[in-house]
Amino acid sequence: MITALDKNTALILIDLQKGIVEYPLAHPVQDVLANCAKLVAAFRKAGQPIVIVNVNTAGATWTKSRKDPSTAPARTYKADWLEITPEIETQPDDIFITKHTWGAFFETALNDELKKREVTGIVIGGISTSIGVEGTARQASELGYNITFATDAMTDMILTAHEHSQKIIFPRIGETGTTDEVIAELTR
Fold first, then answer.
1. Is 153 helix (H, G, I), strand (E, B) or coil?
2. What is d(CA 101, CA 151) in angstroms, rounded to the nearest whole number?
3. Torsions phi, psi for 2 (to 5 deg)
4. Collapsed DSSP state (helix, strand, coil) of residue 160
5. How buried is 133 (Cβ within 10 angstroms: 0-12 exposed, 13-18 middle, 19+ buried)?
6. Residue 65, preceding bond cis, omega within 30 degrees?
């Protein structure tokens, strides 16, 4: 349940890039993108910051560490894999972050960019719920941001992972609500 949004709240959208939205997902991607686009329009109208995050793990140290074999099939990435999907209309004054790990704060300028704008709260959505969204939210929590999760503006490749994040993890570190509930609170 959303009780409030901070006066200075940023929208952070995770990994809505052409390469990721093509993955097999637990929820229809067009519904998720439509909700994310509604959030972008509302935050833009409210004059609040919008953060667009993509992921590029090429060469990242963690990709070379020991771990169990990946359950995801090997992929060849297209040239436009990093580009944000056209359903999310970006503007030059948006904050653009390329992350190399699960969370968008690690070794990026995101925290500095938010602090410059005196942001104390974030609304977060994107793909995938249990990886990029949760990873970023955990880091934001450690940094002291008030977090709101737009639950219908995110999805995952694994339904049970999505449900675990939304039911178990997110209520421990923030507030949850639908896109329409976030927008209602934003426009109060």
1. strand
2. 22
3. -90, 120
4. helix
5. buried
6. no
Domain map (residue ranges) of the chain: 9-68+75-186
Measure the CA angle with vertex 182, ends 45 and 29; round to 5°: 90
Q: Which residues contact 111 (CB under 8 A, 6 or more apart)?
A: 105, 143
DSSP 92-130: TTSEEEEESSSSSSTTSSHHHHHHHTT--EEEEEEE-II
Per-residue pLDDT for 113 more than 70?
yes
pLDDT tens digit sequence for 79-105:
787 899 999 999 999 999 999 998 999
CA 91 to chain centre: 17
Map residue 78 onto helix, strand or coil. coil
> Which amino acid is present at 54?
N
Q: Distance between CA atoms of 5 and 150, rounded to whole angstroms?
A: 12
Query: What does the alpha-carbon distance between residue 116 and residue 8 come to, in Å, rounded to a whole number?
Result: 11
The residues, ordered by sequence, that sit 6+ positions from 20 with a Cβ below 8 Å of its Cβ are 55, 127, 128
Query: What amino acid occupies position 132?
Result: G
Question: Tokens 């009780």 identify what position?
Answer: 3
Domain 9-68+75-186 homologous superfamily, CATH: Isochorismatase-like (3.40.50.850)
